[in-house]
């Protein structure tokens, strides 16, 4: 053990850890969930400390030897080598003060080691005076959310979203000529093709990706140097510009300084916008998952139009039963994202005066949404969608038997006569074609064939030019 001191007195800290007294106090204070802010957030914090050290050195405010040691220690944090030292519960002090001090203490003590000193020699490198120089928890926590969300969306979520859309487009092309009954209100409707149905899913996802990419641009505004209330108090001239330049070098992302540091300190608009985009994508994915569950239902007493891959037994009591577990999993992921969005909305509206203090819960929920969506979509695509097949013969038979085929007769014989044919077909358990062939409607065989061909009714049976 070692004894360290902060402004409230002495604290006993385990000697094998890099955090210090303020982190130790916070661990005791916030025993809430056992959940921590994710590594992406820690990496973003480290990038802020690295960029700030460089900017402070450039301004002549931070000694070069100390600054280089801080930079190297923060790089180790960004590389994940000190993850075990970030020990705070996600539900902690407002504005992420404890989380910021956790980073400051870890980096300070590791930098001391790099320079050959023992941990706790804060007279040489101090967590507040040196590692947190020109910064505040109020600007760094907000900035870390933007960096972490930008990096994880760009590097992890968008690639799996694009892969999912690519697979949907593959299904569109493969099954564009496979006709099936359409359904509206869950009742028979005019035919569509399987490819057309999947094109709807693809476009919904494409629109969601576009909204997410648009929201991502707002996340690229960083509140570097706003300090406590947006005034920039205690930062040297040129700090923000130098820090953002270094941040872009560290991350490879084209970040820019916020246009208004007061808005960035008080609000959470960009985070709310991104969460809304993730919610929109989730709603579209729920539609896809629910449709696949319906369309694959059976196999003998349901729709049975598509076949999902068998990935595991479906029942502990019914032998041979198989369930659409990957679609069910995707549903649950999306439900959670929508719930996270509610928490984010509440936190975003909870700011008062010069500061929104609820940044830890904003960070926890937005990064959780990105992470579970990435994993859920990847698993669903690999274990379900890629192996999905279509029961072509069954789809064709259902389309031929649909009462909605009578819709194509209305322009020739009128709405009411077409309705009479449909009612008779339903009453006599006949197909529309069988009823039409029994009646004298003044239609030739060629006309009947043309009108009652389900594929023609989809628009895919003709040359559209």
UniProtKB/TrEMBL annotation:
Keyword terms of this UniProt record: Lyase
Gene3D superfamilies referenced in this protein's UniProt entry, alphabetically: Fumarase/aspartase (C-terminal domain), Fumarase/aspartase (Central domain), Fumarase/aspartase (N-terminal domain)
InterPro entries per UniProt: Aspartate_Ammonia-Lyase, Fumarase/histidase_N, Fumarase_C_C, Fumarate_lyase_CS, Fumarate_lyase_fam, Fumarate_lyase_N, L-Aspartase-like
Taxonomic superkingdom: Archaea
A single Gene Ontology CC term: cytosol
Single Gene Ontology BP annotation: tricarboxylic acid cycle
Domain Fumarate lyase N-terminal: 9-339
Domain Fumarase C C-terminal, chain residue ranges per copy: 407-459
Top EC class of this enzyme: lyase
PANTHER family: ASPARTATE AMMONIA-LYASE
The protein's name: Fumarate lyase
Organism: Methanosalsum zhilinae (strain DSM 4017 / NBRC 107636 / OCM 62 / WeN5) (Methanohalophilus zhilinae)
């Amino acid at each position: 053990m070692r004894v360290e001191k902060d402004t409230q007195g002495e604290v006993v800290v385990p000697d094998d850890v890099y955090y210090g007294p303020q982190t130790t106090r916070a661990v005791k204070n916030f025993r809430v969930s056992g959940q921590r802010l994710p590594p992406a957030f820690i990496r973003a914090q480290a990038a802020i400390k690295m960029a700030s050290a460089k900017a402070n050195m450039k301004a002549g405010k931070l000694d070069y030897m100390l600054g280089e040691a801080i930079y190297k220690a923060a790089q180790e944090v960004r590389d994940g080598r000190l993850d075990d030292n970030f020990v705070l519960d996600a539900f902690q002090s407002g504005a992420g003060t404890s989380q910021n001090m956790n980073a400051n203490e870890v980096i300070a003590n590791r930098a001391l080691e790099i320079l050959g000193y023992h941990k706790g020699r804060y007279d040489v490198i101090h967590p507040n005076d040196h590692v947190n120089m020109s910064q505040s928890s109020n600007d760094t926590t907000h900035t870390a959310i933007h960096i972490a969300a930008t990096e994880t969306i760009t590097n992890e979520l968008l690639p799996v979203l694009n892969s999912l859309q690519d697979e949907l487009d593959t299904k569109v092309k493969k099954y564009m000529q496979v006709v099936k009954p359409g359904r509206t209100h869950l009742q028979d409707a005019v035919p569509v093709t399987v490819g057309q149905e999947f094109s709807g899913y693809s476009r919904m996802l494409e629109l969601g990706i576009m909204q997410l990419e648009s929201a991502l641009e707002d996340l690229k505004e960083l509140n570097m140097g706003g300090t406590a209330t947006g005034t920039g108090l205690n930062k040297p001239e040129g700090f923000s510009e130098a820090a953002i330049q270094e941040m872009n070098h560290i991350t490879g992302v084209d970040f820019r300084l916020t246009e208004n540091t007061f808005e960035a300190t008080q609000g959470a608009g960009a985070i709310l916008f991104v969460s809304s985009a993730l919610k929109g994508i989730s709603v579209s994915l729920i539609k896809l998952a629910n449709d696949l569950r319906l369309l694959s239902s059976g196999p003998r007493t349901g729709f049975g139009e598509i076949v999902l891959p068998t990935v595991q037994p479906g029942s502990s009591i019914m032998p041979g039963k198989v369930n659409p577990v990957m679609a069910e999993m995707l549903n649950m992921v999306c439900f959670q994202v929508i719930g996270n969005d509610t928490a984010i909305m509440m936190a975003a509206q909870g700011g008062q005066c010069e500061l929104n203090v609820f940044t830890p819960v904003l960070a926890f929920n937005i990064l959780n949404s990105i992470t579970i969506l990435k994993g859920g979509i990847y698993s669903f695509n690999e274990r379900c969608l890629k192996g999905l097949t279509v029961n072509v013969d069954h789809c064709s038979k259902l389309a031929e038997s649909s009462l909605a085929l009578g819709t194509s007769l209305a322009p020739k014989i009128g709405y009411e006569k077409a309705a009479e044919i449909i009612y008779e077909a339903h009453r006599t358990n006949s197909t529309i074609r069988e009823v039409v062939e029994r009646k004298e409607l003044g239609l030739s065989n060629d006309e009947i064939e043309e009108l009652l061909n389900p594929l023609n009714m989809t628009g895919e049976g003709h040359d559209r030019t």
